[in-house]
Design goal:
alpha+beta, four-stranded antiparallel β-sheet, globular, Dimeric_a/b-barrel, Ethyl tert-butyl ether degradation EthD
């Protein structure tokens, strides 16, 4: 089944450009090599005035019959991934979303 693994995070203050570069050039590439991870789309959260909030969002399209097992495999692979100290390690949040109807294009 197809899901979206929705991840929110923040960069260490003042290191947003470094974090962006690492996420685009390293982390999302490594994540998309994992079994079941099909793609990654990244966003920056804006408030209602259009101002960036400092929250980064990554939506991974994944294919799995067991979302919990897929997330466990991501965490198991973490020691082999190149991490950065530009991420605020208190900030990451993970959630799965499943489709509720047909795709509309």
């Amino acid at each position: 089944m197809r899901y979206i693994l929705h991840v929110t995070s923040r960069a260490v203050a003042g290191r947003e450009a470094e974090y962006d570069r690492w996420y685009d050039e390293v982390h999302s590439v490594e994540m998309c090599r994992l079994p079941g991870v099909r793609s990654c789309t990244r966003y920056r959260e804006l408030d209602m005035t259009g101002t960036e909030t400092g929250v980064f969002v990554a939506d991974y399209e994944v294919e799995t019959d067991d979302p919990a097992a897929l997330l466990e495999s991501v965490f198991a692979a973490a020691p082999t991934m190149r991490l950065t100290d530009s991420i605020d390690m208190e900030s990451p949040r993970f959630a799965f979303f499943k489709p509720t109807g047909p795709d509309r294009i």
